Amino acid sequence: MLERASGAIRHRRFADLPDLVAPEDVLVLNVSRVIPARLRGRRERGGPAELLLVRELPDGTWLALGHPGGKLKPGRRVTLAPDSAVEIVEQLGRGLRRLRFVGARDARATLAAYGEVPLPPYIRRPPRPEDRERYQTVYAAHDGSVAAPTAGLHFTPALLAALRARGVAVAELDLHIGPGTFQPVEDDDPARHRMHAEVYAVSAAAAATINARRAAGGRVWAVGTTVVRALETCADERGAVRPGAGETRLFIYPPYTFRAVDRLITNFHLPRSTLLMLVCAFGGYEAVMRAYREAVAAGYRFYSYGDAMAVV
């Protein structure tokens, strides 16, 4: 745990979280669920092809990244199985393509039958059947992400029940995580980095709960950087969260004035990642780097299945 005001670092277990969250506070969860978005197939001339779905569009087509990029041109097909294929409809910028599913199976049935969970690239093993459930939070509800909101992987039903029994409110939102979460910031000037758009939804009930708790003196705990981005996208100048749905490209890096979030639970992230830059903006660069050095020295686990930190 990193205390922003004092810079103090304390070592706690995640099960101790109910001791840190006050009864008047609100915990905000991203309930997006990971879909088996990676598809492997064969091009018309027999060569292999790989597709990573990004999201479904209103007209039923999908945005996707593809490899080999030069071969996946409009009009060409990738066969996934005898009863399933995709056709490239349009090439877009930044490696994106628009495609449609063709064959006997629709998109959902194809993903269920042939899709793979898109594990992060630093997990160097093929996905396994059990990853479809293991790479999910216990509260995942709405399909749409290609990566798990990994800060939430630490929660159990019992821990959530203990927080609610203490009086803590729990609010839920969606931010469907896209492949941009794995994209490092390559430019030395972060302002030049462009985020992929991600779809979010904050219900009127969630916004009302968050605003009421904060107005009464409670703190808003964001479980993960995705929750931070969704709330900051929806917050007005006074920090009130407005309900709504849409797309966000919000990239938070130092310096940044947070309006809607008071506390952050997050994993330990990769260097040059947008996730680490958000954490540094929230906790202060020097303090966060000091916490990371101490975590390394203590043998903490990093990245998706690693340990967590609370920034308070």
Unreliable segments (pLDDT under 50, ≥5 consecutive)? none
Number of domains: 2
Could you name the CATH homologous superfamily of the largest domain? QueA-like
Number of helices: 8
Mean pLDDT metric: 93
Shape: globular
From the helix content, strand content and strand pairing, which structural class follows?
Answer: alpha+beta
Helicity range? 10-25%
What strand line-up does the widest sheet have?
13-11-10-1-12-14-15
Strand content: 25-35%
Largest sheet: 7 strands, mixed
Name the CATH class of the largest domain: Alpha Beta
Please tell me the CATH architecture of the largest domain by its name.
3-Layer(aba) Sandwich
Elements, N to C (H/E): HEEEEEEEEHHEHEEHEHEEHHE
Intertermini distance: 7 Å
CATH topology term of the largest domain: QueA-like
Radius of gyration over C-alpha positions, nearest whole angstrom: 20 Å
- Beta-strand segment tally: 15
